[in-house]
Amino acid sequence: MINVDEKLNDPAFFATGAHYALFDRLRAEDPIHWTQSPDGRGYWSIFRHADLKTILNAPNLFSSEREGVAPVIDAEMAAIAAEAWGVGQNVAMIDAPRHTAVRKVISAPFLPKALAGSEARTRALIGKIFDDIPAHGEIDLVADLAVRIPMAVICDILELPAEDWDDMLVWGKMAIGGTDPEYRQGTVAQTVRYGFEQLHAYGLRRAAERRGCPRSDPLTLLANATLEAQALPASMVAHNAAQIILAGFETTRNAFSGGVLALLEHPAQMALLREDPRRLRLAAEEIIRWSDPVISLMRTPTADTELAGQRIREGERVMLWFPSANRDAAVFARPYDFDVTRHPNLHLGFGAGPHFCLGGPLAKLEIRLALEALLSRHDGIEISGPVERVQSTFVGGLKHLPVKLKAHRR
Ligand code: HEM
């Protein structure tokens, strides 16, 4: 008999892929499950699509600000979480009405209209990353492509130089993936704190250089923003700069690499995309559903309430398990079929409600253009070594995907 709570709190468990089977069982038998946690307080685990949607769409009752949205790790992490993540300062961890105002400051460059105008530029940027890999031969698809594509795109939007990529990558892995032994330096909390401190200092420095500048990139917008007639405090500039940088590359790389792996494991789906690349738009949605870059997010109830018949008290945190919602047969026909033509595709991979992912359209554009480049340049792609996943209960995905590429016959 497995100990369910131990598994739900174990980052290594999520690197095995066995969480999908556990979620199937819990959705059926115990969909709102009280979970003991290493910080000693416990939380409600929520598994069904309908219940996640209800919570995400009730931000006044289920707060992002009260205790933040990052999953519970341990007591040491709990002690530093608010400062590291910027609870009450980072757009993802602020409630209305301030949330609406802060989101408005940074949103313009990520709106679909702005992205449509820069699609050719994004395609060219992605093309340059592909130019740097061999047409034939072995690469690590994560390190050589999946990491570099969203980094190039977000740094172009933020107007950040390529020589800063390597530092940002190291800090990002520590801040988001501090539970993985490969990225850990000291305890998890020490790792996460160091990653964030570096990102905050970097974001603040880059934003400060632009104060008073007439530019329109998100860092300039943050540097020059006012909130309630005051300049945005430095800590808010730092936390929101870090949020955009991190959100810009950490999740998208996992979606793209997870999508390529899914296509390699389902060659008939790959053939459908080669046959008609117009299918790439729907494929990008299915890749988000299938690869589940965000594993869990937290909310804290601001009052006693009831969810699907279960009484939940004020302050009893709820953990939303996204891979579970995205395989819920109540919403998805044949949820374990990877189907690039799935439509409609009501996945919750980008969340829902007022905190719905600001970068969703950008992430989908990147995935579509990166797959377009991969399929048009390479005829054959084969897995050539062991595939490794990140150990995390928060943002999951691939660490290594060794592949052998064969150039397109012209
Ligand atoms: C496949 C890639 C991505 C996935 C799966 C993803 C997922 C998510 C999810 C689930 C949320 C909701 C958080 C919540 O409700 O607490 C979110 C929020 C957010 N995402 Fe993404 N994201 C992705 C890419 C991006 C990109 C490229 C950016 C670029 C800027 C971005 C920026 C943000 C921001 C700023 C928020 C906070 C929005 C708010 O609280 O109003 N994301 N993302």
Concise overview:
The strands form five sheets. Strands 1-2-10-7-3 form a five-stranded mixed sheet. Strands 4-14-11 form a three-stranded antiparallel sheet. Helix content is 49%, strand content 12%. It has helices at residues 4-8, 11-14, 19-29, 49-56, 75-85, 98-107, 112-117, 119-131, 141-146, 148-158, 165-177, 188-208, 218-223, 234-265, 267-275, 280-291, 322-325, 360-377, and strands spanning 32-35, 43-46, 62-63, 137-140, 226-227, 230-231, 296-301, 305-307, 310-312, 318-321, 378-383, 388-389, 398-400, 402-407.
Small molecules bound: protoporphyrin IX containing FE
- Give the helix/strand class: alpha+beta
- Fourth-level CATH superfamily: Cytochrome P450
User: How many domains comprise the coordinates?
Assistant: 1
- CATH first level: which class? Mainly Alpha
Profile the largest sheet: 5 strands, mixed
Work out the radius of gyration: 21 Å
Fraction of residues in β-strands = 5-15%
Query: What form results from the Cα inertia axes?
Result: globular
N/C terminus separation? 56 Å
Strands ordered across the widest β-sheet? 1-2-10-7-3
- Please name the CATH topology: Cytochrome p450
Average pLDDT metric: 96
Give the helix proportion (percent range). Answer: 40-55%
How many β strands by DSSP? Answer: 14
Number of helices: 18
Low-confidence stretches: none
CATH architecture: Orthogonal Bundle
Give a verbal description of the structure.
- By secondary structure, this protein is an alpha+beta fold.
- The chain has one domain (4-407): Orthogonal Bundle (Cytochrome p450).
- Helix content is 49%, strand content 12%.
- It is built from 18 helices and 14 strands.
- The chain has helices spanning 4-8, 11-14, 19-29, 49-56, 75-85, 98-107, 112-117, 119-131, 141-146, 148-158, 165-177, 188-208, 218-223, 234-265, 267-275, 280-291, 322-325, 360-377; strands spanning 32-35, 43-46, 62-63, 137-140, 226-227, 230-231, 296-301, 305-307, 310-312, 318-321, 378-383, 388-389, 398-400, 402-407.
- A five-stranded mixed beta sheet has the order 1-2-10-7-3. The chain has a three-stranded antiparallel beta sheet with strand order 4-14-11. Strands 5-6 form a two-stranded antiparallel ribbon.
- The radius of gyration is 21 Å and the shape is globular.
- The model has no long low-confidence stretch (mean pLDDT 96).
